[in-house]
């Protein structure tokens, strides 16, 4: 059985590549490092979150914990926990 978190991480990275291009900073992003510290702006994060809603078929809760938005891995773990 495929690892759902792995697949979610790959899809999230793909969404980032779609927005920033394959030759952008996205290709060197650590999956566990802070997206902000690695160069993702607030506007780019919002764009990613909206794209994730469309790609995974869910809506973000208003009270989502900031730790969820920290990294590719934490975003993927959240999506996996939702079962989407």
Could you walk me through the main structural features you see in this protein, from its secondary elements to its overall organization?
With 84 residues, this protein is mainly α. It has a single domain (4-82), classed as Orthogonal Bundle (Non-ribosomal Peptide Synthetase Peptidyl Carrier Protein, Chain A), CATH 1.10.1200. The chain is 51% helix and 0% strand. The chain has helices at residues 4-20, 42-56, 72-82. The longest helix has 17 residues, at 4-20. The radius of gyration is 12 Å and the shape is globular.
CATH architecture: Orthogonal Bundle
Largest pleated sheet: none
CATH homolog superfamily: ACP-like
CATH fold naming: Non-ribosomal Peptide Synthetase Peptidyl Carrier Protein, Chain A
Can you give me a brief rundown of this structure?
The protein has helices at residues 4-20, 42-56, 72-82. It is an all-alpha fold and 84 residues long.
